[in-house]
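Hi U.,

Before I forget, here's the chain from the pilot set. I'm dumping it here mostly so it's searchable later in email.
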Amino acid sequence: MIKLIFATLVQKNLKITRRYSVKIIKADLSHTDDIARLFDLYRQFYQCEADLPLATEFIRQRLENNESVIFLAQNAQGEALGFTQLYPSFCSVEAVKIFILYDLYVEHNGRQSGIGRKLMQQATDYARENSAPRLDLLTAKDNIPGQKLYEQQGYVKTNEDFYAYSLAIKQN
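Structure:
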C-alpha cells in the first residue's frame, strides 16, 4: 500500500512543502539488511554501541522465527526510512492477546514528515486485524517528541502506579 506523506522543510524561516510517496510494508527476510541498519541506529539512539552484525542477526532471527512483526517505511526509490517492531504478547488480567510496540525509529532525514505516525497507524491496523484489543508501548521519560506523537495517536499513560523491574539472568 502506498501512503503519501507531505514533508515540510523549514529553512531560514521559509516553509517549503515537498510531496513524496512512502510505502509502508510488512517486512520479510529480504528486508533484513535495511531493517538492521535502522535497528543499529535505533540502538545507538539509546546509547548502545554501534554493532551492525549484532543488529543484523537479531533482526534476521526475529523474522526467520516469526517472533515479531516489522513494518518498514520506504521512499519511492525503495530506500528504508523507518521501521516499527511489534511483539505478540498476552494480558493475563484481561485474558486477551495484545501486541507490544517495542521499537519505532525514523531516520533523521525522515523525521517531522509523518512517517512515524504512518508506521504507528499501520501497527494499530495490524493489531485490530489480529483481534488484539490493545497495543502497549514504553518510552523513556525524556523522549518528549515520542510522547507527543504517542498521545496524538490516542495512547494514554497507564503505568504511573506501577514500577518497571528487570532481572538480568546469568547464563551458565
